[in-house]
Specification:
Length: 104
């Protein structure tokens, strides 16, 4: 009950002070309040997520995998020998299909 009363008192004081501000300063105050609210929501979400078993570990793994992908140039992936060989094999198979179609 005492917590609710303190909360109500803070709201009344905040409203009283906000009413005394110029429109420009009121806009700044609203931006600050929005920022504080966003932080509070983020902290609450973080607490919920961290209570999920193994969430932090999975999240770290995802971040590490993203870092690896970002640090890999696309031309390195394309020049990979295994990928190149798979492409050549596929190309040969399609050429054979085209030849058979032409002969029929």
């Amino acid at each position: 009950m005492a917590t609710e009363q303190k909360h109500s008192n803070y709201l009344s004081e905040a409203e009283s002070r906000l009413r005394q501000l110029s429109p420009e300063k009121l806009r700044v105050a609203v931006a600050i309040i929005a920022y504080l609210q966003k932080i509070e929501e983020s902290e609450a979400t973080e607490k919920i997520l961290l209570n999920i078993p193994d969430f932090a570990e999975y999240f770290r793994e995802i971040e590490q995998n993203e870092d690896k992908l970002e640090n890999t140039a696309s031309n390195q992936i394309a020049s990979d020998e295994e990928v190149w060989q798979a492409y050549l094999t596929s190309k040969q198979k399609w050429q054979e299909v085209y030849r058979r179609l032409a002969d029929s």
